[in-house]
Automatic annotation (TrEMBL), chains A, B:
Highest rank taxon of the organism: Bacteria
GO molecular function annotation: DNA binding; DNA-binding transcription factor activity
Domain HTH gntR-type: 14-81
Entries under PROSITE patterns matching the protein: HTH_GNTR (PS50949)
PANTHER family: HTH-TYPE TRANSCRIPTIONAL REPRESSOR GLAR, TRANSCRIPTIONAL REGULATOR, GNTR FAMILY
Protein name per Swiss-Prot or TrEMBL: GntR family transcriptional regulator
DNA sequence: GGTTTTGAAATAATCGATTTTTTGCGACTA
DNA sequence: TAGTCGCAAAAAATCGATTATTTCAAAACC
């Protein structure tokens, strides 16, 4: 058997389409494109160094995921931002993540506790340099994923991840607020403490506050 | 200005890709393909009368939607069925749909009540012929959509729709159970009554029973 | 005998070119 | 002068062919 790249590094070899999907997804959440902007496919082709077919496949996936709008015969658009949609996303995040957190705390085992502490540590360390935003964002996403991971519901986690990406689109466009940011950082550690102690009600209510505080920051996105 | 087809009938003109998406989606939910089956792209090309590019775009969308699994360099597969996943889907449906129902009953107006009665009537009428399953399925889906429509949360409705499609994949594969079916039909009318009277608690608990009863039917899918 | 290698066939992914549809703008008209 | 019309340019969608990767069965090896 010829050894495929996937057998070497354990990861499945990526196609041009899947690489383009990941890259464009990242840039959409990052706020690289203006809300409402129409994507110029030939320009994207050059920027992401990818052919037309894989590019279109990536854009189709992103549309089904909700990070793009697809209009028949008139291409792809970046969805507009609205205060109202942000409210929808934030409220739903609270509902779904609190649901998942409860189940995670009931079902999480020692292995989970370890991974949660590891994720917390990575988040604290990544926090230092303001130049490496992308590093922190990745650690932050991973922290929240780890927190809810053992909830036992793949579909719930899927929806939460999707909403998180939508929410981050707003948050990352908003002007930073150091005071609130410090509070949010503190809450991450408090969440870990409560999770380890299985203080379900406390953790739920803190997670709700956490999302509401982020929401407050994210609201700055629709102002500009 | 040349009058485009869309300007005539009010609908946006469809592309080959979007038509293929709808057709294959319908067939996946219908159970036309075996669970776990690998899709033969060249065969699909012939069956859906569509070229390779639009077909692949449709399959990419379906993967992002969750009705297919995409594995890099090895094509598309129909997701396997499992008792466990069905449980996940059903439980989450209960949570999300009860949430939406509460809000819909609080916010629904007279127009909603009219549309709900209309949807109920269509469902009862479609029920008659056992030959036209597809008609009933459409009316049924529409009834449940109408019931929750005024909840005010587009994202919640999106997730509910997605879960409903997943659930139906199981339900439609399961052997029919006339006794339970009669109960389910009765519940639809009861739900309308409670919705009109704004008996929120009653309606929530009935909707939960309704989903649990459907779940019982759907469990027959993993047996065969 | 069981495992590994090999290579042809099958399949997936991508490319380049073509077709179809929309868009933008200037001329025409009431 | 506001509203149509028509045409050229631009963009989207699709096609047909090509390239890359996987699969599978037979041959070689230990």
């Amino acid at each position: 058997m010829t050894i495929s790249p996937s057998a070497v590094d354990g990861a499945v070899s990526e196609t041009a389409a899947s690489q383009a999907f990941e890259a464009i997804k990242r840039d959409l959440i990052r706020g690289r494109f203006a809300a409402g902007e129409k994507l110029a496919i030939s320009a994207l082709k050059a920027e992401y160094q990818v052919g037309l077919s894989p590019l279109r496949e990536a854009l189709n996936r992103l549309s089904a995921y909700g990070l793009l709008e697809q209009h028949n015969q008139r291409g792809f658009r970046v969805p507009p931002l609205s205060e109202q949609e942000l409210e929808d996303i934030a409220r739903l995040r609270i509902q779904l993540e609190c649901m998942a957190l409860t189940q995670a705390m009931q079902q999480g085992d020692a292995e989970w506790e370890s991974q949660l502490l590891a994720a917390q540590h990575r988040l604290l360390r990544a926090d230092q340099q303001p130049s490496q935003v992308e590093q922190w964002e990745q650690a932050h996403l991973r922290f929240h994923r780890t927190l809810l991971a053992p909830c036992g519901s793949p579909w719930l986690l899927r929806f939460i991840g999707q909403l998180h990406d939508q929410f981050d689109r707003y948050r990352r466009l908003a002007p930073p607020n150091p005071a609130i940011r410090a509070q949010l950082d503190a809450q991450h550690s408090e969440l870990v403490e409560m999770a380890l102690d299985r203080r379900i009600q406390d953790a739920r209510s803190l997670l709700e506050q956490h999302i509401q505080l982020s929401w407050q920051v994210a609201q700055g996105a629709t102002g500009c």
